[in-house]
Amino acid sequence: MASAETGLLTRVNFPLYCVKLLKNNLLLVGGGGGSSNTGITNGMEVFTIVCNGERYMAKPLTKFETGRVAIMNCEIFEQGRFIFLAVGAEADLHLYKVTLKLKRPEDEGLVIDSPTREAASSFVQVRHRRRSSLEVSEDSPNEMKELLQEVEEKKTKTKKPAKRDLGESMYAEFNLVKQVQSECIANDAYLKVVRVNPTNDWLVTGGSDGYLRFWKSDDLEKIKEIQAHSKEIDDIDVSPCGTKIISICKDQTASVWKFEDGSKVCDLLWETKHNACKYHFKRGRFAVIEGHKNKSFLITIHNPLGKPKEPAYVVQWDHEDLKRKRAKALPEVLSALAVSSDGRFFAVGCMFSGSVEIFTTFNLQSVKKIENAHKSFITGLEFAPSKNDACSLTVLHDASLISISVDNQVKVHHIPKLPGVTLWWALSVSTVVLFVTFSALSYFGV
């Protein structure tokens, strides 16, 4: 059991509802206080994760304010050298190109150009983090001349530029690619979840009208739509091979669909021995079978309806027939679920205590629990890319998990590397076993 005081990456000034992490240590969080005049910011913030030799920290790159719209869901993905961000904004879907740019030494202390007008007008504006800002009027040429002379004098006096970390030398620029309406027109229409397929070719969205809608990821051209449920969709996930989609609905049901033709594979059916208590699906994630990239199984979490004292459940479903394989009872209502990219671990976040727990996927055994990791319920979990990818978070760990909450904190939790078995050690043990075996056979005259 770990202490909740460790692992703090950063704090922001708004409640957090979504978190995404790329393999280049780029971290994005989103949230806000909503449309009411609470004075709490709505928006997204981009960080880069660095290590000072003792602990990990998140260095701010850019803050993107979104006016009266809180960011409740998003998806971030790469296409070639470009990074794209899909954001649900009420009933609309926004697609942005995110460009990482290097600040020039001569730009130090100067205001960086704003992003495109489209990106600024779609919400409000982008604010780049800097050490200071300097405004000079166009009508004051003498002032500009004095400023340039001062800059030149400083350049000649400076023998070596001051060392700056990545957070101070880079910024992220948002450019709006396209904006489309994702949900049917209604007073309370809203988009609740957006996911991308493994090859980053298409996006799938779900929300208040119960439809699954598929979009090309480069220009948001609609591919097709499925009337999946009669009520709002709470969660979506795409299988590692990209052929299946799970949708979880507010009406307590969950279904699996084929992407190719939009047909239903099956409805997931699960009941407990507690006949007096009904359960509903909360979240679902596909987990790749280790060593088989195109095969996967499902992990779902279930909460009791109206009886919070009853246990919650984690359920594993078989990859072939999608039948229940095993289940594990947990003592608290669950609010979040994440699965590692290599399929080895999954994590859950708790509703009341703010605790986080990490399990192995193949047998549902707990490997680490962080009691009271946050001061309020967990709103999002995200595993760092596995050790096969280029991510410094997993260099010294078997897995690293990012957690967020409405307490405005971003934290990281690690699974230490297990001692590996070296080839020399394995050969030595094999030699000893063979020697003992042949000695025993010789002794008994076999």
TrEMBL record:
One of its GO terms (cellular component) is endoplasmic reticulum membrane. InterPro entries: Sec12-like (IPR045260), WD40/YVTN_repeat-like_dom_sf (IPR015943), WD40_repeat_dom_sf (IPR036322), WD40_rpt (IPR001680). Its main location: endoplasmic reticulum. WD repeats lie at residues 184-225, 226-267. The chain crosses the membrane at residues 423-444. It comes from the Eukaryota. Pfam families: WD40 (PF00400). GO terms for biological process: endoplasmic reticulum to Golgi vesicle-mediated transport; protein transport; regulation of COPII vesicle coating. It is found in: Endoplasmic reticulum membrane. Coiled coil: none annotated. GO terms for molecular function: guanyl-nucleotide exchange factor activity. Keywords: Endoplasmic reticulum, ER-Golgi transport, Membrane, Protein transport, Repeat, Transmembrane, Transmembrane helix, Transport, WD repeat. It is a single-pass membrane protein. This is Prolactin regulatory element-binding protein. It comes from Darwinula stevensoni. The lineage of its organism: Eukaryota, Metazoa, Ecdysozoa, Arthropoda, Crustacea.
